[in-house]
Amino acid sequence: MAKKAVDYLQGIFAPKPTPSQSIDDDFGDFAAAPDPSPASITPSASTFATDGSTAPTSAPLIPYTKWYRVWERTSPRDFYQEAVIMPFIILIVGLHIWGRRKNRRKARAWIAAHAPAMEKEFVVVGYGGRRSSASADNSDDIDEDAKGNEDLMREKTAMEFTSYATGRLNVASLELKLTLFKRYNPLTLMIESALSFLFESVTQPAERMEATSYVFDGKERDVVPVRSKAELDNKDARFKGLPSSSFDNFVWALVHKERMKRLRDDRYDISLTATRDHAKLSPWLTTMSESAEITEQMLRSEELVKAAKEAGDAFEYLVISDQPSEKPNKLADLEVPNASRKRIYLSLSLPPKSTHSSAYKTTLPLFTHFLRLADTLVSHAHFRPEVTKKIRNTREEEVKKLRVKDESEKADERRLESEKRKKGERDARVKGLSAEEQRKFLEREREREIRKGEKKMSRKA
Known about the structure:
Elements: H1 2-13, H2 45-50, H3 80-121, E1 124-125, H4 140-144, H5 146-152, E2 153-155, E3 160-168, E4 171-179, H6 186-198, E5 208-215, H7 220-223, H8 229-233, H9 235-240, E6 252-256, H10 260-266, E7 274-276, E8 285-289, H11 292-298, H12 302-311, E9 315-321, E10 343-349, H13 364-380, H14 385-431, H15 435-460
């Protein structure tokens, strides 16, 4: 009996032999794994034959060649996508290059036509210092004088070109700006044209020349720079013999009627004027003036009337102003230096075929008169005391409006600061009270607000 019990226990605790198929399938027998062998990159046909399968015929086998023998492992169909994209890239780059060259050619043609008139009136024209008289009058000379024209006119952007002139009696400086089409970006140009057609607030793209003449107005001592100590010491003697270059303050404009509304909306100084037609002017021209006497005085010169008529639709506006073009928002804006400096503005649209200097024959007389207009103002822009008093009253009314606006803004600031200070004192006082005292304090505040609301309702009733 005891022997049977010992055999039974040995059968339970003794290890049992396990068959080979009972090994866990989750573990691999790495000891029996074959050695790895490199796979062939280009399988041969015999491999497929031994496997009992046929070689694939859908894609041809690409042979391995040297890295620089690209033509042996590529075909034209590998570049179909590039063939579709490349024409568009070439077109965009070509239009960009053509547009920039076209704008540069138009700018060179403009300066070639107007540089002689500018050099007759100013000592320094352009950014290259003193220059001799220009001799480029036809389109063939434009390319030959390209380097000289680059000194006369500078390319600020692909669509904007600027020039500068100084060194003349009664005129401190002259600034010119040519704005051209965005020919280098036709898509943007088409979008802007479409938006200007759909929305009145969007300005229609146009090619124009804008010139601004800054007059001395008797301030030569303050405007002319002093370059040495000797000039500073002789400053009084330097300007002692000069005739007076001052004239009365006023705003006057000669405007094409198609530009009249937008000019009044865009410029603050023009908003001070009234529109008046004149018998001497063409039907498509009008004047915007602060007084009828100013218009009569400005149109005494037949040269201005004739030049504006000859310019035709290329003429946009001629403005003489002592007020800023942008509306001042506060009184301090009028105290900024040069805010009320007297200026003369001229705007002309460029003709479509303006790559030749001969295209500007109709507008050149008006531009020449604009250069000399400061002399006319110094000689004749002196009006009766009644006219100057009316103009002065207009300025004072505008100053009063700005002063009232500034005072109301300052009063609002003082009120906000007072409320902020009272709130800070109240919060500090409440923090020093106990919980019961804070509750009573808030209840008294609530009762006062209710009484104030009832009083307001009773007053309205």
